[in-house]
Amino acid sequence: MRAATLGFSNEAKHVARATRKGYRHLQSSNAIGIEPVREELGTVWEECRTPNWDGYGAAAVSQDSLRNTYLLLESLPLGFPLPSIGAEPDGELTLEWHHSSRRTLSVSVSPDGELHFAALLGPNRVYGTEAFFGEVPERILELGRQVYSA
Amino acid sequence: MIDPNNVPEVAVEELLARFIYQSSHIRPSDRTVKPNAFLPPANLLCSVTRHLQATEDELWSVGKEGARTRNAVLYGRADLQSEDCTRQQLRVLKAPVHGNPNHANVTGWPDDKPAQKIIAQELAAAALLVFLPQPGQADS
């Protein structure tokens, strides 16, 4: 969520708090928020929080990865397409936006707040790492939009 | 299955199976496999089973035995060609194990996580997901 105000007065702080509260309320709604993926996140966490959850020696998903994934989901702009949740052998959780085999974006959320991403966009391949400081990096949002663009 | 005493090198045209033991590796929306299923563990060896000289029943037996020893559920397998791996600068090396002479490892993965992810996406895009046939259901 972007900062609602840069002011430091009591009134400005009150407005910022109220805005955040309203935003969280909207995020928790089934219609436009992240509620539909919360349950999926919980299911994947339950299945993958012990080692070897994939049968090939995967590391357990850590609580820090879970927390950062939740914060990342909460930071998505309202109305942004919802991802599906997964886990990786190194214990990181993933968010995936998938339209087709060659229009797909996967973002891994590390315990220390790094976002490793990879996207297939037609013939193009894009991959790299962005830091997560409480807001979804614009580069990742743009890739997510491109997944669903015609 | 391959004769354990005469295991050939893996050819580019061979089909490989990656058994799926985790439900979140499958996209319910279009019943395809996610790239996460191909990401290697810490030793950078992605375990697969070669189709070479194996019947469907024998392939599924390997997967079911894997599920039994892992105390896991077998959901299906993702089939891809060896060439799909070599096209990504990976290598497929024979690695027969007790009970599965068709076992092989996909090796040559980069250390860099984003580079691993983009390769796994390419493999997932090329793979065909085959669900475990239910009892009484003809093999697909």
Secondary-structure blueprint:
The complex is a heterodimer of chains A (150) and B (140).
Chain A: H1 10-27, H2 35-48, H3 63-75, E1 84-87, E2 93-100, E3 103-109, E4 114-121, E5 124-131, H4 138-148
Antiparallel strand pairs in A: 1-2, 2-3, 3-4, 4-5
Chain B: E1 15-20, E2 26-27, E3 32-33, E4 46-50, H1 56-70, E5 76-81, H2 82-86, E6 91-94, E7 103-107, H3 113-126, E8 128-131
Care to give the gist of this entry?
The complex is a heterodimer of chains A (150) and B (140). With 150 residues, chain A is of the alpha+beta class.
**Inertia-based shape of chain A:** globular
In total, how many beta strands of chain A? 5
Query: What order do the SSEs of chain B take from the amino end to the carboxyl end, as H and E?
Result: EEEEHEHEEHE
Radius of gyration of chain B: 14 Å
Percent in helix of chain B: 10-25%
Strand arrangement within the widest β-sheet of chain B reads 6-7-4-1-5-8
Largest interface: A-B, 37 and 34 residues
Mean pLDDT of chain A: 87
Number of helices of chain A: 4
Rg of chain A over CA atoms, rounded to whole Å, is 17 Å
Q: What is the N-to-C succession of helices and strands of chain A?
A: HHHEEEEEH
Total number of beta strands of chain B: 8
**Number of H/I helices of chain B:** 3
The low-confidence runs of chain A, each spanning 5 or more residues with pLDDT under 50, are 1-5
Protein model, in words:
- The complex is a heterodimer of chains A (150) and B (140).
- Chain A has helices spanning 10-27, 35-48, 63-75, 138-148, and strands spanning 84-87, 93-100, 103-109, 114-121, 124-131.
- Chain A is globular.
- Residues 1-5 of chain A have low confidence and may be disordered.
- Chain A starts with 9 loop residues before the first helix and ends with a helix.
- Chain A is an alpha+beta fold.
- Chain A has four helices and five strands.
- Chain B is of the alpha+beta class.
- Chain B has a six-stranded antiparallel β-sheet with strand order 6-7-4-1-5-8, with helices on both faces.
- The chains are: A alpha+beta (150), B alpha+beta (140).
